[in-house]
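Chain and conformation:
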Amino acid sequence: MPAQAEKSEKEILNELLGAEEKFPVIVEEEPKVEKEVEPLVKKLEEEIYLTQPVTDDVGQPLVSSPAPQQPVIILPLTQDSFNQGLKQKVSTSIRWLVEWCRRLIKILGPQAIFREERGSV
């Protein structure tokens, strides 16, 4: 069965229709750049930033330039509850929440901050 999965459509058609009709199997390759043109062709991989958003006839924005964002992530724990959760057993849910927050702190660094403690009213 794996041999059939590797066959192309044309090869399967050749087997089904028999010897009367044959469809040639053509392997297409990527066109090669000629040596004369090669120094003139270069691949650009950089972000394009628009100075103004692209709008339609009515004035609705279609495309706007992406603004680099550095969002601040507020973790669902305070510093005290984080420290207490580290001392809990692995079988408790607070420990798993603390481990998840620890992972976010490692990934995001200074963007992840602890929730502030609310004063008792």
Observations:
- The chain has a mean pLDDT of 80.
